[in-house]
């Protein structure tokens, strides 16, 4: 329930130019800090990460234009993400395109717990989304992207493709910093992300009656962990994102918007890979702090835009616990990234 106690953010904020453009000493220092933050919180803010402010502003501008398209365009078969049950046994191809409010419910439940998942999905996440995948390699072969046609939203597809690539370059540097911080060869993780099957998600949380959020009747994004390698999150200035406090589980830290930053978090796949050394931490989106009275007893929250860029390893590659992190033994058996992602994808849809 969103009412659990909340502290102001003490999540670390680091200047990533020390890694992207610094001396080898600065690179090492930044890598160690980032890795330490991932071990402790699983979350870090990066500033001076190399993606210019204007580009990020343009990303939000495009997102607004996208969600302002008429419903009949968004819900058209060309653009709409198919319902998973329409493609039985083929859940790995239902990610791309537009998903209306209520289609998806993030959870942190066991993917094998069907009853638990059904009950949990009864409270929808109040968000609409648009998702794209890579326009390269297996991601593209598996499922082509769905974009609004060029006469409806000219320039959008080109922008998204370019931004996807820029985010991937930042990703590779973040992965290098983690490898260095863990004492591995710099490109250790990069080798597993040569044909990365990433997802770039545009989220819009519509204005909603504050009371329905605070009562838990509906959620913006319910508590969950991400399941890939890492996620890079772009959020606007509305707020509402919270991260579980590692020192006091069950309570949350506020992930306040920090201008010009991206938030990076560890996903379950990387946690497993590192034998739980790096932490994939619970997070959620609740009502934003700012209030807006609309009269008639109605108090609506602001709409909120965010874009997570989910980094997922090469599907065909099998990952096993990193040798130097085995300690008393590997906690998890080896698994291919594809197998793991499919397993987790099953759990997040409204129905299947
Ligand atoms: O909207 C946000 O800020 C976070 C969304 C999120 O955690 C997710 O989609 O996995
Ligand atoms: Fe998430």
Automatic annotation (TrEMBL):
GO terms for molecular function: metal ion binding; oxidoreductase activity. Keywords: Iron, Metal-binding, Oxidoreductase. GO terms for biological process: small molecule biosynthetic process. The keyword Metal-binding applies. Residues 195-313 form the Fe2OG dioxygenase domain. It comes from the Eukaryota. Pfam families: 2OG-FeII_Oxy, DIOX_N. Belongs to the iron/ascorbate-dependent oxidoreductase family. This is Clavaminate synthase-like protein. It comes from Eremomyces bilateralis CBS 781.70.
């Amino acid at each position: 329930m969103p009412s659990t106690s909340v502290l102001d953010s003490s999540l670390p904020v680091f200047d990533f130019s020390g890694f992207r453009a610094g001396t080898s000493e600065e690179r090492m220092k930044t890598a160690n800090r980032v890795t330490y933050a991932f071990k402790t919180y699983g979350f870090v803010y990066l500033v001076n990460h190399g993606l210019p402010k204007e580009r990020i502003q343009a990303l939000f501008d495009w997102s607004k234009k996208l969600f302002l398209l008429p419903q009949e365009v968004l819900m058209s078969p060309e653009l709409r993400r198919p319902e998973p049950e329409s493609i039985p046994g083929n859940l790995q191809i239902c990610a791309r395109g537009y998903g209306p409010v209520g289609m998806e419910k993030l959870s942190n439940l066991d993917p094998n717990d069907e009853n638990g998942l059904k009950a949990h999905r009864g409270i929808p996440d109040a968000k609409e989304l648009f998702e794209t995948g890579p326009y390269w390699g297996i991601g593209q072969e598996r499922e082509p992207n769905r974009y609004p046609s060029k006469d409806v939203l000219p320039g959008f597809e080109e922008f998204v493709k370019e931004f996807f690539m820029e985010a991937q370059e930042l990703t590779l540097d973040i992965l290098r910093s983690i490898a260095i911080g863990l004492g591995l060869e710099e490109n250790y993780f990069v080798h597993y992300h040569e044909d990365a099957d990433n997802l770039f998600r545009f989220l819009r949380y519509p204005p909603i009656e504050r009371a329905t959020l605070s009562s838990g009747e509906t959620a913006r994004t319910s508590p969950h962990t991400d399941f890939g390698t890492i996620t890079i999150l772009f959020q606007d200035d509305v707020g509402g994102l919270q991260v579980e406090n590692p020192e006091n589980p069950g309570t949350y830290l506020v992930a306040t918007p920090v201008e010009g930053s991206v938030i990076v978090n560890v996903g379950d796949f990387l946690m497993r890979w590192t034998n739980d050394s790096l932490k994939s931490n619970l997070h959620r989106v609740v009502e934003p702090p700012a209030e807006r009275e609309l009269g008639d007893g109605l108090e609506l929250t602001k709409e909120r835009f965010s874009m997570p860029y989910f980094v997922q390893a090469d599907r065909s590659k099998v990952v096993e616990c990193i040798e130097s992190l085995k300690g008393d033994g590997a906690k998890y058996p080896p698994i291919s990234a594809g197998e793991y992602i499919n397993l987790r994808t099953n759990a997040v849809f409204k129905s299947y």
